[in-house]
Protein 1
Amino acid sequence: MATVLSIRHGGGESDPTEVINTRYAWVLLVSLAGLFTFCALFKFWFGSQKGQQSKFMARIKKHLIYAPLIRSGQTEFRLSSASVIFTIPTRLQACIIFTAVVLNIVLLVTHIAWDSAEKSLFSLVRNRAGTLATANLIPLVLLAGRHNPISSIFGISFSAVNIFHRWLGRIVVLEAVVHAAMWLASKSSTSGWSYVAEEFRSSQFIFTGLIAVISFISLGIHSPSIFRNKFYETFLHSHILLVCLALGGLWHHLEELPARRYLFAAIGIWAIQRLARFLLVIWRNCALAKTTRGIVKEIPGEAFQISVTMARPWHVQPGQYIFIYIPSIGLWTSHPFTIAWYDQNESSPTKESSDINVSEKSKENTIHLADINVPQKSKETTIHLIVKRRTGFTAALHRKIQKTEVHIANVSPLLEGPYGGKQYCLDTYGTVILFAGGVGITHQLLYARHILNGLEEGVLFGRRRIQLVWAIRNFEHIEWVRSWLECLFRLDRAKNAFHVQIFITRDYNGANDTLSLGGNLRLFSGRPDVDSILRCNVDQQVGPMAVTSCGPGTMSDQVRKACIDYQFDCNIDYFEGNYCW
Ligand SMILES: Cc1cc2nc3c(=O)[nH]c(=O)nc-3n(C[C@H](O)[C@H](O)[C@H](O)COP(=O)(O)OP(=O)(O)OC[C@H]3O[C@@H](n4cnc5c(N)ncnc54)[C@H](O)[C@@H]3O)c2cc1C
């Protein structure tokens, strides 16, 4: 069999061409690892630059780190506010992608005897492209999915990791196409198309290769942003199916060929990630005689709050998100939501007691955390999510609570995570401006809470200025977080340090609405003028300044642009936590 393969495919382990290809595959893997390590070190170094900003640093931030690739300042190419056609990387991300592309091209064309006869030239390029495509599967799988270690180790956001995953995927598809095209060109020119057709029918080696290539091409075609956003579940399930087909086909295609070792590693990483996720879900949601339980409550503005009391306590960090499974609604599917708030309780209700209390309280259509607690001695974490209704899982959940008399329902959720939270830390900034659009508020609240709590407890020091700027469509959306804002305003250090501006973009004249949450809160009609808000904060800046944004792409683009414009006036770091990918 090995001899047959070496004739067909160019060789086994000892074949000199394979030795060279193996060497190039390793060069590729080591270079990509080096590239990511360099990025991690750069991120670490960049994070430590908090003092007076040099002109050089300002230029790097303005033209490389924060700058979108194109001058228009957008990081998304949109047809309308709802349909994103594709994500545009920042210049820094584009540099990393460009390096990976160039690296692959160089490794594909180097050490190929370009003056060889046509047939052997086709074979050389074919084998090199095939080997590189297979080797690229390792970083591709490492960067795939929610549980990827690169994201956790390097603190890179879900959306940024996804950008790299997609570009590596495109490289793999192109290399697979080159591999197949070289074989087709060689066989059709020497033996004719009828021989090619016969090979597809009779040779398992060729047939499985064909399945793999078609699957890779399909993966490339079905992945654009517009399809992912419109039909997420269809995308996800077909993606997994095609990945299985591609890897399965390739596994048979590479039987007894050296490149199979890369595939083995890629499948191993994928299997370990899946297993780790499964174990994490079990561990998080099942403890001795306890499971995770949740309550879904309708809140104004086509939204609902999910409060989940975890089977085990956990130390929640700002910026963390979880994936929630509610099998009775979404079967095996899971959806990401950011932890908007959490409570660490000393007591632990049993399932029955919490159910009873909910139904009793339901009559008043209000529910508070205290209502679902029965005093017992153990620590437990309740996390709160604010979920805006969309058209799939969230709509089904919304329908379920609509059917209940008081629009509150008990659910049995499973939470996977937490993920994120390591992307950035705002502890060392004197001035922090948190921009949120709509449900993006869930990303920002815990950052404010973390800093204010740190100041109260003496863990953080010095003068601080935290400004929360929140744009919402309707006045009623304030209800989503009203009680939590009140909690923050009650903190001593919030009096001077915490300022909130809420911009109501629709149907608001400000005349009839009164809002007294006991703190520095101001309501405005219309959209926030990002530039003047930033100017005002630059004038009153305390220490280094961090600006973060979580909301619609258009809003984040404005905030990003304003931060870029002020780079030479002061030291501003910009971070994004959007819910797109
Ligand atoms: C890191 C992160 C944090 C988020 N935090 C919040 C939050 O705090 N509150 C909130 O209301 N929304 C949040 N979202 C968005 C939320 O996950 C989606 O709105 C929700 O999954 C939509 O479910 P659906 O089936 O009703 O969506 P659909 O109506 O089918 O689709 C609406 C949009 O949600 C996207 N989407 C659907 N399912 C998923 C999924 N499983 N994973 C990723 N995206 C998906 C689709 O691509 C589409 O763009 C967050 C998203 C991410 C990536």
Protein 2
Amino acid sequence: MRATYLPDGHVGLHPRRWFSLDDRPDAPDLACTRPDLLDADGLLVASIGALLLEGPDWRVLVDAGLGPVHVPADATHASIGAMVGGGLVEHAGVVGTVDAVVLTHAHDDHAGWALRGWPGFAGLDGVPHLVGAGERAPAGWRRVGEGDEVVPGVRVLATPGHTAGHVSLEVTHAQGRILVVGDVLHSVVQLEHPEWGSCFDVDPIASERSRRRVLDALSVPGTTAVATHLADVPFGVVRDGRWEPVGDD
Ligand SMILES: [Zn+2]
């Protein structure tokens, strides 16, 4: 079992706007408490990328990056700084062909290359694309829900809230399990503050419920998490409520 993070780009998030902290007067100022997570402009640095999962006789790609675009700051929303994608195509040879592409959800920064038809990725023509039931997504993408098995040992967890059909994946292997959590987590600060959702959550209550469910699951020993927005530390284990980065593979 091998899990490889494949970067596509990055985005800066205004922390107070992204986590709607103006609605939480007691929230700490991340510029004081976690300056290590912010760039020179005070934006929370979030990576954008995909995850390649390889089992004994299957290969699955999770998410599809942003695609070959550069979106200027504030062009989409006041909480979002410049958004840069496109790097994933440099890994097209590593991606090769897969049994399925699973999209945690259909936002631009997770479905970008797929929505563009995968230009430059020769091996992905005709590969089934799976997305959660209830997600707004192109016709032709297959729908999955809680408990569905994508390939042997890879199961869907319904984790709605960020979007209606957001899904996570549970990968069981000989040494333990991996949870691919998508946008259940945008930052390690949410381990301390699971009540902090994204201003984009369509259902904040469901989002918090999903985050608490996933954090409970991550506290089980032998569980490795993959959260692709966690810049530089997409792989981690949760110990004593903290994110401890681990290397890929
Ligand atoms: Zn995202």
Protein 3
Amino acid sequence: MKHAPLVDQLIHAFTCLPGVGPRSAQRMAYALLDRGREQGRRLGDALHAAMDGVQHCQRCRNYAEAELCPICESPKRDASLICIVSTPADVLAFEQSGEYLGQYFVLMGELSPLDGIGPRELGLDVLEQRLQGGEIRELILATGTTVEGEATAHYILDLAQDAGVQVTRIAQGVPMGGDLEFVDGATLAQALRARRPFES
Ligand SMILES: [Zn+2]
């Protein structure tokens, strides 16, 4: 038995999502067609609106609905302090901490030559221009500690040093309230290397 063409089309469309294979896609399509017509219509509307209305902020590359995102547009944020992160989710994490008043640069990935992700794909040519422009005082590196994250951090370090811009890196280490026995060795070693004087 074959599906009706529109059902097939729907199933196929779901397979574009990360981690969704043909069987999961089929389950999703059936669920919406059987019991979720209204949610399905809302999903379609949300997809349409986002695909047409979301762009990348021209300063920081985060998702935005205008040329600049609210953070880059805010006069309260220090434009001379830029935190480099890999994804928009990282920006949210920093914002939730409420501690950071600088701006961001969102790479939307990390260097991964085998996957065809080079400096241009991460907007590093744009970052280099901004660094050379002289408005940035300090770059804070907050990329991941994977091999790709490290390679990305070192590439950006070179760009910043060429431009004479100070670079710092967030301390990596032991989570608050975490038990040391659950922390992996690499994290613990990094936390040890990044230790600071203990003061009252
Ligand atoms: Zn922005």
Protein 4
Amino acid sequence: MLRVEKVSKHYANSVKGQITKAVDDVSLTLRQNEIFALIGESGSGKSTLAELIVGLQQPTSGSITWAEHLQVPITDRPASFIQLVFQNPDRSMNPYWRVKDIISEPLRLSKYPKKKAYSKAEELLEKVMLSADFMDRYPAECSGGQKQRIAVARALSMSPSLLVADEITSALDPTIENEMLQLLLSLKRSEGMSILYITHRLDTISGFADHVAVMKNGVIQEAGDTKTMLSDPKSDYTKALLRSLYYT
Ligand SMILES: Nc1ncnc2c1ncn2[C@@H]1O[C@H](COP(=O)(O)OP(=O)(O)OP(=O)(O)O)[C@@H](O)[C@H]1O
Ligand SMILES: [Mg+2]
């Protein structure tokens, strides 16, 4: 569905003559209706790759194509196909807006009448398992987990084919994190979409992600089927990650 081919993003640093290879020669394929986990430590290039995929940044080299539409370059596809949810919901939510206006903003921008947009917002709240009581609340009146659900509902309003979730559970406690994973899993099934799930933790993806790629210093160290990688890791880095899980 989405093909990332030999994509690099190099930044020229403010320190003269130095460059950071945030993403370096990365290739991967995202299939339809699958959850793809991208794992890596802080600074490994995960968010940069997410922003390249969403089109917020342009690669230094390489190409990202949308196979569903016959190799259309990613920059030419309608904006709604891919939606990004950030790690910090406060970054993407206006604190002075009510939840119903936050969720229905993308619909209003695509010329939905207000009443219709609100009733759609209520449906979307239900999809992320929040009651209609949330419609009139402000972000400050919602918990971190609830805010992430609202951010997901907002992304779903555009019926994306691909949802990119960049560390959306990092700030949540394990129970709420697990509920969020269950929600994403059920959305994958009910909406038939694909999810690129970005995390620094390898221990949450078993039984959740179909495929996984492990990234370090901008380079994919290993990629493949989740079950196989967890049971039979090939790269030294993945082995070390798994060992650190079992001994902590
Ligand atoms: N605009 C920029 N200019 C220069 N360097 C950058 C820029 N954005 C990111 N970098 C560098 O690129 C590398 C990858 O950053 P990125 O944010 O993609 O990592 P990450 O894997 O998302 O980390 P985290 O888990 O902390 O979110 C880092 O070394 C970072 O310092
Ligand atoms: Mg990041």
